[in-house]
Amino acid sequence: xxxxxxxxxxxxxFAVGNRLLDPDQRTVQARTERSNTLTSGHRACRGxxxxxxxxxxxxxxxxxxxxxxIAANATGxxxxxxxxxxxxxxxxxxxxxLFGNAPAVASGIAAALKVKGRTDIRVIGQxxxxxTLDIGFAxxxxxxxxxxxxxxxxxxxxxxxxxxxxxxxxxxxxxRTANTKPVGDDPGNVFGQGKSAPxxxxxxxxxxxATATVADLHDLEHKIERAMEFRGARxxxxxxxxxxxxxxxxxxxxxxxxxAQETGLFPVFEAEGGDVVAVxxxxxxxxxxxxxxPQRRFxxxxxxxxxxxxxxxxQKIADRNIDRFGLLEDS
Amino acid sequence: MFQVRIxxxxxxxxxxxxxxxxxxxxxxxxxxxxxxxxxxxRTGAPVVAFxxxxxxxxxxxxxxxxPDALIxxxxxxxxxxxxxxxxxxxxxxxxxTSRSLEALGIGEFLATLQPERVLAVPATELAREHVGRPLPxxxxxxxxxxLTGAISIDSVTAAIRDRFSxxxxxxxxxxAEAAHELAAARGDQVPVHA
Amino acid sequence: xxxxxEGSLAVAKAVALCRPEVISAYPISPxxxxxxxxxxxxxxxxxxxxxxxxxxSEFAAMSAAIGASATGARxxxxxxxQGLLYxxxxxxxxxxxxxxxxxxxANRAIGAPINIWNDHSDAMSQRDSGWIQLYAxxxxxxxxxxxxxxRLAEELxxxxxxxMDGFVLxxxxxxxxLPTQEQVDAFLPTFDPRQVLDxxxxxxxxxMVGPEAFAEVKYLMHxxxxxxxxLIPEISGAFSQAFxxxxxxxxxxxxxxxxxxxxxxxxxxxxxxxxxxxxLRTEGVxxxxxxxxxxxxxxxxxxxxxxxGAKRVVVLEKAFAVGLGGIVGQNVRLALxxxxxxVYDTVAGLGGRPITRRxxxxxxxxxxxxxxxxxxxxxxxxxxxxxxxxxxRLSDNRRSGPHAENILRDVGTxxxxxxxxxx
Lengths: 331, 194, 423
Known about the structure:
The structure holds three protein chains of three kinds.
Chain A: H1 49-64, E1 69-73, H2 77-82, E2 94-96, H3 102-115, E3 122-128, H4 129-134, H5 137-146, E4 151-156, H6 197-203, E5 208-213, H7 217-227, E6 234-239, H8 243-246, H9 253-263, E7 269-272, E8 275-279, H10 288-292, H11 308-325
Helix pairs in contact in A: 1-7, 3-5
Chain B: E1 2-9, H1 14-27, E2 31-37, E3 46-54, E4 69-72, E5 92-96, H2 107-111, E6 118-121, H3 123-130, H4 137-148, H5 153-163, H6 166-185
Parallel strand pairs in B: 1-4, 4-5, 5-6
Antiparallel strand pairs in B: 1-3, 2-3
Chain C: E1 2-6, H1 7-17, E2 22-24, H2 32-43, E3 51-53, H3 58-70, E4 75-79, H4 81-86, H5 88-97, E5 102-107, H6 121-125, E6 132-135, H7 139-156, E7 160-165, E8 173-177, H8 181-187, E9 204-205, H9 214-243, E10 251-254, E11 261-265, H10 269-282, E12 287-292, E13 294-296, H11 300-307, E14 312-317, H12 328-335, E15 342-347, H13 357-368, E16 378-379, H14 384-396, H15 403-411
Parallel strand pairs in C: 2-3, 2-4, 4-5, 5-7, 6-7, 11-12, 11-14, 14-15, 15-16
Antiparallel strand pairs in C: 1-8, 6-13, 10-12
Helix pairs in contact in C: 1-2, 1-7, 3-5, 7-9, 11-12, 14-15
């Protein structure tokens, strides 16, 4: 009798669409009754992390709110690819106003719902790192400080992608962007102190803050649903790799998100009332270069000669995060 | 039309004085208008406020250049600001001071005016006594009523009660009435209607 | 009920009577008393139900109003000067989306140099933003225009800004007739939005529109403003019926029917102008005034009709187009094109400089004695000596210093510098 070798692909304990799971353990994405809030037909690039993240987040939010949800969206990739005139891929009430005001618009929507006694309808504000951390930052902080009943979701692809990949305050050090090219002695983006939106959100002492990536669907959905259990200002920051801006293969978007978490460069955690209450431990620690290599935005670090000094600096950032958030299993 | 210009410093209730005067006139069935001229909020800076009242509707919106009455809430302005700009021979002048007008260094100028139209009133002292704070505006309005006869003391006190309540209203009314008595008691003065 | 009260307070009460559901406001002089008073009314429950958002900037104020209005709530805000500019992007967004927000603009100069006093440069800078612009002549009219504005905005789905002169009106205490809640309710129905964010009937609002359709969407904004030219007099008429007084409308004419000379202006200065008109009439001068109450949309036909009988028109405005001349003046000339009417453009009152009867009388005399050049913007009450001195400084020194400080030194406000006096 001949034997055929079968490859067993173990992709994780709770895989997407895993029909072997009990129905109540399945993700929203695995259910036939998912809302498809961001439905097909949008114009995102293949492999777009933001399209994935938005679909995941909004379907989870729609389940948590039983479909009673209104979205305010900042200008950016998501807004542009989801509403190519005359089409729209949104299956919920959706408002796009400006680049810098999504949090304030969301506050206005929440106020209107409150005055009309319709607090059963929830509000989600969303935008990219540009609209959230830079131009929209004042509005974000204002919304946090007032504790308006809004869940704000930031899809972080670490640069102003829609306008051609210019750097944002979320762009990692050493990364190439259109205006931080790898020329001169300090190639790529500067090594500043960074700007941690989740930590800033926590400093506002809002009810709930969390980070997530598109690599862990269960975790992302859990965070959105958990956020919807609270009233007041909530913030969820999702890492969404961008194949075009990062210079990565469209097939490795999810892999890169996982590597970002496993290096420690993107800590995944939850906080309530300003204090961290849970972290996603790193099960298989990965050195930063494994994460950096597949991205052409870091290609200049692997030239001849390689910039091991820069890679070391990035490793230090990862190490610090691991320390600071206690991301290793045994810590 | 009777036009009043009030000078003082920020924080002394100059704007409120003009407002109260306009309300007093309103309560007498007159048309009245009050408005301030000031910079960004800060105490101590010179402030001017205006009040006009008339039997006809008032459409005019310019600062009062030729006042029928001038109220000076703070005499330290005397040599800093051109307080007497536009003052004529018929103008009533009311100055908040416990000193004599000569001691203020304006005796010569005031001598050119009609003596029965010029009055010094220790409004700050009266305010301290009755209100417990050095806010001379209510007292000055009481004296104004006696000096000019353009508004009655009853309207002034009614305006005070309209704007303030409780103990503050009572105290300011008392201050206004005290100043009114003081002013009326000055022998040679004959109130003249505008 | 007739009361003697501050303009800001009167407007706050009028707005409250209109039952706004969401108020978002950021304070800026000279609008502060309006938003403070509204805050009090909400806190005491006198204005309820109403959500009052204390936003972190004017940009946020208009943005929150956009969100609220799109959700079907009657939304209101107020601002002035720098605040209006800070929300400029959102102004265009609101008008482009067709949201019937009503906003008070307490007209104030725009810096630099920073100046908190009244002129029209703020509202004029946004005259093409797609917002309807109404200018109040008095606090009574300011009250009335707000009530009319909500009805106008909601019927057309166009945002409306009610302009009232900062300090001159906002901080003036004068008699105002405030209507009752019943009267306002009868005049202003509950807000019935044309578009609303509703989970039971989801719509996408604010999508990108490409070259295929943008022009048509923009044209509709224009068309709706043209409709306002008919609707505004209608609403003013209905207001008159309901409240018993004339307020609003497109233009106010004062003794202009048989006038040879007509002064055209916007806002509170019209009060002083009317006084001067009366004075000059007793002296035999055939003079009148026309107040433009609705500046956008521009009532071209009505202005033409009001001015065409005159020999000369003097436009007195409180803002100007730098490098060009008058703003209102240009618009008036447009209305009079083809007619043998001489138009004079004048600007006064910039940065809060008072416009007095004397200024106006001098102006009229200069016009009648042909001392004013008809093709140039005339700056009234300008201290030419100060200007010439500063211009001389510019030509004498490369490092001539900031204009404002130099001129203020000359005026005497700033003590001479320790290094030897003004340069």
